[in-house]
Amino acid sequence: MRIAIDAHGGDHAPFAVIEGVKMAAREWPDTTIVLVGCSDSILPESIPGIEFRQVTEIIEPEDEPVRSVRRKKDSSIVVGCQMVKEKKVDAFISGGNTGALMAAGLFYTGRLPGVDRPALAPVLPTLSGKGILVLDVGANPEARAEHLHQYARLGSVYAEKVLGFDAPRIGLLNIGTEEGKGTELTKSAFALFQADDAIRFMGNVEARDVLYGPCEVLVCDGYSGNILLKNTEGVAKAIFDRLKQELTANLLNKLAAAILKPGLKRFAKEMDYKEHGGAPLLGLAGPIIKAHGSSDATAFYNAIRQARRFVANNVIAQMEEEFSRGRGE
Amino acid sequence: MRIAIDAHGGDHAPFAVIEGVKMAAREWPDTTIVLVGCSDSILPESIPGIEFRQVTEIIEPEDEPVRSVRRKKDSSIVVGCQMVKEKKVDAFISGGNTGALMAAGLFYTGRLPGVDRPALAPVLPTLSGKGILVLDVGANPEARAEHLHQYARLGSVYAEKVLGFDAPRIGLLNIGTEEGKGTELTKSAFALFQADDAIRFMGNVEARDVLYGPCEVLVCDGYSGNILLKNTEGVAKAIFDRLKQELTANLLNKLAAAILKPGLKRFAKEMDYKEHGGAPLLGLAGPIIKAHGSSDATAFYNAIRQARRFVANNVIAQMEEEFSRGRGE
């Protein structure tokens, strides 16, 4: 198996990427990791299982996505997506510009037949520890009901084959649990989901229940999903920030905090989405994974683990099958 | 001043309502509180400053809003809204069925001239302690840009006159801070906000920043606002639930928790939206406030304080002025 990774993607690149790649190369000798970067000086030693693919350009986080992938054709993001298309690698991972990765995926890797719009699908942590796949979280701010239906089908295959959920339950993000709640979009999507026997639709899910893990796959339009994702991050961060203040307020509190530290650290780790790998761009014709911008070495290592499962379980072929079945509808 | 309150609204009604009313009557002798309920036996003693208005029906939380306010014409919610219209009271508070309160407000109290759709506008807690007014959070799941603009104008007046913010900053909930981000709706709303000199528009606000209080008024469509509100509640609850587990995991942790208890309690109180009173239905022709369903006596007392400010500062008249100014646009 060959997995390409963007040496320049993420706040801690290239060092965190290289450390993660080294960890992965040690762990999985059956996998060749192709580091796509501007200078091979970032990887001075020759390490078994790691190849280097030289490029000359970098797409910056603030670059306008569509324009940058059209212009910077020798950037790590564009080259990574092309390598997937040309089957020079089996998967590509980047912690860089999300919009550019999506645009490069669309232009250079292409979509699965039957999919209108690929979706960005991260796993949010849940109290149960299993996590919940949420899609779309912003690849496409606006969606029609048939797009949400495609997300549900893509998410269902991915959750089963990569995340290991048996017959994953699909929920529809909405502002009430009863049928008939919400917008024209959610009402139409509800009807489409309910009519599809190939997915295990369990109804509307309210935003307050998401972290309790009411389903394995949560479907929403990109605008709402982005609000949900960023709000979850923001509220958790705000509470942990405030908690830290409390725990360091005085000497006695610091002592109490020292006692609680192992448990709180475990908890913070559970809530850390980086533990769950990156977010796949579901609906593209190859496995392309967006690692979180703040990824550390472990996060990149986890993203490589995830890409391995994506490839080993032949997920793209199964999505193709799902959508060829759907074409006769 | 006369403020009516629904004796039957909320999970802890009528007892929490009555306790809150008693606290308010003691605190503000200039205010007569009209308890609207089915049986005066719920208030056995005669208390100075408290009147009773008998009704014969109750709208239940699970009742379909529009149908119930049309049929149950002698319910506390309908009668309360009518009393505002007929100027028998200056304001009405209910902790009951939100949709029914909105429907009764529309049918029996009416809208302000120039307002298409009233919005539900709660205050979310922020780390700074000042709170942030968010509207709409679900009165109308779908909105057009001009509705968002109306929310911004209504929220601006309310935040200044009732919440006491000087020249409140208006933010637009969006999936990126740059202009041009988001959906057709947010793009059009951005342009309308920017062109209006009477509001202090500070641009797009991302969901991850809301609890840090980036502005005083946050505008969004009802569907997104509802997702934001319920997600904030849900994430905070999930974290506190999990924290509780950690704090009681063993004897040593319980000891540490005892030390931290006062600080953590203070923090939990800061995060409690009940401290911020109820959510006004902005855009109706009178002050109508939705108290949270889980309101306790203090929350009802706080909602009465808020209704007093709403009335004393002549906010409805100022909103009318704001919208008469706008009519020539």
UniProtKB/TrEMBL annotation, chains A, B:
UniProt keyword Lipid biosynthesis, yes or no: yes
InterPro entries in the record: FA_synthesis, Phospholipid_synth_PlsX-like
Pathway as given in its UniProt record: Lipid metabolism; phospholipid metabolism
Superkingdom, taxonomy of origin: Bacteria
Pfam family, any one: FA_synthesis
Subcellular location: Cytoplasm
Subunit structure: Homodimer. Probably interacts with PlsY.
Name the record gives this protein: Phosphate acyltransferase
Organism annotation: Laceyella putida
Native organism taxonomy: Bacteria, Bacillati, Bacillota, Bacilli, Bacillales
